[in-house]
């Protein structure tokens, strides 16, 4: 087993080519950077710590991996579930399929929030009584085969026209070929409501006109949750795992929309 030191995507790509590891773990941003540097993979590739789309996992397999797995976990219980790229790509329902719970992990929902328990779960929080169930902060449901499907973060809800919209339920549909990242955010409107904005980051070499056409169908099928506006921009990232920064993305979307309105 090899552990790669922190390095540039080009150096990582060379190390992967030389070592040909049987198992590789990289976060989704690291995977995107490595793919952009022309990396080729061998054996199984695992990714987690941030959302991993079916499109990203498919690109990893196209780059040589025998299997590409998305791992769902949280600090309080690691790991909790996993899904292979082919199963994720075959899922046609709403939300983000993260797979069946791993052996020993128990699952339940409470008021729509996903709760997990198992041997690897944290014992308690400092200053609090022990609790076998860890609250994930994620809205979720189980599909007909018992697999976990995420619907978005509870705190990320957008309230538009008196309707609760959970971005995570719809964002996977925006991950069409050519999209690097896609995030739905709420932007305050003048009437006190919120505007729902899709911020889409194109992959290198893919133009906005091409992506608008590819996104037309998925956007139409979102029904009452269809965004009020579509903005093409690099999605801000934050934290060690470089997850999309929703607050920063909402500010960016608001600035873009304000600038567009000023030019009319």
From TrEMBL:
The signal peptide here is none
Keywords on this record? Ligase
**InterPro entries recorded:** AMP-bd_C_sf, ANL_N_sf
Family in the record: Belongs to the ATP-dependent AMP-binding enzyme family.
Q: Spell out the molecular function terms from Gene Ontology.
A: medium-chain fatty acid-CoA ligase activity
Lineage top rank: taxon: Bacteria
Question: What GO terms describe the biological role, i.e. biological process, of this protein?
Answer: fatty acid metabolic process
**Which PANTHER family does the UniProt record give?**
ACYL-COA SYNTHETASE, MEDIUM-CHAIN ACYL-COA LIGASE ACSF2, MITOCHONDRIAL
Name of the molecule in the record? Predicted protein
């Amino acid at each position: 087993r090899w552990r790669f030191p922190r390095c540039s995507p080009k150096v990582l790509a060379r190390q992967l080519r030389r070592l040909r590891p049987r198992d590789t773990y990289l976060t989704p941003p690291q995977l995107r950077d490595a793919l952009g540097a022309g990396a080729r993979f061998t054996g199984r590739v695992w990714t987690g710590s941030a959302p991993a789309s079916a499109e990203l996992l498919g690109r990893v397999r196209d780059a040589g991996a025998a299997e590409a797995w998305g791992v769902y976990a949280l600090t309080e219980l690691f790991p909790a579930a996993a899904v292979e790229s082919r199963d994720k790509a075959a899922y046609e329902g709403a939300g983000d399929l993260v797979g069946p719970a791993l052996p020993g992990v128990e699952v339940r929902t409470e008021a729509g929030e996903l709760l997990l328990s198992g041997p690897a779960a944290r014992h308690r929080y400092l200053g609090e009584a022990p609790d076998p169930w860890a609250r994930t902060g994620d809205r979720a449901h189980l599909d007909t085969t018992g697999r976990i499907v995420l619907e978005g973060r509870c705190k990320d809800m957008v309230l538009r026209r008196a309707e609760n919209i959970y971005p995570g339920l719809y964002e996977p549909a925006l991950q069409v070929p050519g999209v690097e990242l896609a995030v739905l955010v709420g932007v305050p409107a003048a009437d006190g409501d919120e505007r729902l904005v899709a911020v889409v980051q194109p992959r290198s070499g893919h133009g906005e006109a091409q992506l608008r056409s590819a996104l037309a169908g998925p956007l139409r099928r979102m029904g009452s949750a269809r965004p009020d506006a579509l903005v093409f921009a690099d999605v801000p990232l934050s934290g060690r795992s470089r997850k999309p920064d929703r607050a920063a993305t909402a500010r960016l979307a608001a600035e873009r929309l304000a600038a567009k309105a000023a030019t009319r």
